[in-house]
Amino acid sequence: MAEKSRIGVTGLAVMGANLARNMARRGFTVAVHNRTTAKTTQFIEDYGHEGAFTGSESLQDFVDALQTPRTIVVMVKAGKPVDAVIDELAPLLDEGDIIVDAGNSHFPDTDRRTAHCAELGLRFMGIGVSGGEEGALNGPSIMPGGDPAAYAEIADVLTAIAANVDGTPCCTHVGPGGAGHYVKMVHNGIEYADIQLIAEAYDLLTHVGGLSAPEIGTIFEQWNTGDLESFLIEITGIVLAKTDERTGGPLVDVITDQAEQKGTGRWTAIDALDLGVPLTGITEAVFARTLSALRDERQAASTTLAGPAPKPAADVDRLVDDVRQALYASKVVAYAQGFAQMRAASQANGWDLDLGAMARIWRGGCIIRAQFLNRITEAYESHPDLDNLLMVPYFTEAVGNAQDAWRRVVVTATEHGVAIPAFSSSLSYYDGYRRERGPANLIQGLRDYFGAHTYHRIDADGAFHTRWSQDGAEVRTD
Ligand code: 6PG
């Protein structure tokens, strides 16, 4: 009888295969399974030499190949396929076995599956895994949610395969139920905002600065040595520098300008609306992708709708530096909003999220890994109940120093007719958030006029209504 495996992975598409290889390379015995047997055979043929794998054709053999209590990582497409695998696995498992969903599942599904598995005597964990194919193989950022006792049983594997920054694994228990997938969802939302801001910077440097893709690539390479240092800035430099083999020009110039999405950014925005958290950067990034998808409509509009006459920037060097500062300030806002959302979700769901720890596990392995996440961890370490990241001195100063350039960028883009939804909405959020008194008093007055929705006064307690169309008198309504 062969030695039983420490952990099993079912679903051997590239993410599942790479996670399994990562585990085996770290010395864990791994049972692997795929719905299509040929894929399992191929996997063993290609990677069998990398570690102690057991390939199983049937789910029963797969389950039998595991040490008990069993730990099974499910890496299939989010949605119905996850439910299908659980339904097939459950009758073969014993009480206390752990099913780990490592895909990009929507957090309410994870909550539902956790409850369903608990009824069956099984333990379910939803873990966010970020880092793409390479991260899965060499060290992703891992956001595990679910029963802490179940986490304690698999923490050795997860922390060993995770990325590691300064001796700290990019993996920590996030919270119960769907908390891990929730944090992964917000990670992806921030990823959308980061990418949108980068795209807007590229658009400005192209259409206002008159720079070519490789020239902008060099600028991003330089930016990656300062405050903006991050994986996404680094790969932007590489993508912009790439020459197309067919045309000999920049590859990016021949890529269709329609952004696709799988849903995590949209879920983040929808949840922010449900929670009542202003999440403008990420939400604008989602809308920008949907606008980009209207390619036919945009092409028709481009010859119909008027814009300003093109004029080159007077001072390109200054534009480049202004855009860098605007990018940094807007990025800070996107993170401030995303963290405010996680705080609100934590309060609403009783998750007790450690926000500093979330920033810590995003420092390595994941798509939004960045130098400045250290500053976010420090911010929450010194102020655990922080309402908004903008309020800690480091970030207050960072956006304060950048604000003049940020405003110039928004003005310049508007004058040149370049759409900058993420830059401008971030600045508007900043200006809205720092106002002691905004214009919502008028909104309340209007609502009271047409719907008797009442308002509060700054100089008296209680709710009031003015009989606008009758005698004009104010009455207290509570
Ligand atoms: C990650 C990525 C990963 C994936 C996104 C892409 O953290 O490793 O976020 O999860 O690349 O799902 O999302 P869109 O297809 O929606 O852009």
Automatic annotation (TrEMBL):
Keywords tagged on the record: Gluconate utilization, NADP, Oxidoreductase, Pentose shunt
Listed name of the protein: 6-phosphogluconate dehydrogenase, decarboxylating
InterPro entries associated with the record: 6-PGluconate_DH-like_C_sf (IPR008927), 6PGD_dom2 (IPR013328), 6PGDH_C (IPR006114), 6PGDH_Gnd/GntZ (IPR006113), 6PGDH_NADP-bd (IPR006115), 6PGdom_BS (IPR006184), NAD(P)-bd_dom_sf (IPR036291), Pgluconate_DH (IPR006183)
Reactions listed under catalytic activity: 6-phospho-D-gluconate + NADP(+) = D-ribulose 5-phosphate + CO2 + NADPH
PROSITE patterns referenced in this protein's UniProt entry, alphabetically: 6PGD
Described purpose of this protein according to its UniProt entry: Catalyzes the oxidative decarboxylation of 6-phosphogluconate to ribulose 5-phosphate and CO(2), with concomitant reduction of NADP to NADPH.
Any Pfam family matching the protein: 6PGD
EC number: 1.1.1.44
Pathway: Carbohydrate degradation; pentose phosphate pathway; D-ribulose 5-phosphate from D-glucose 6-phosphate (oxidative stage): step 3/3
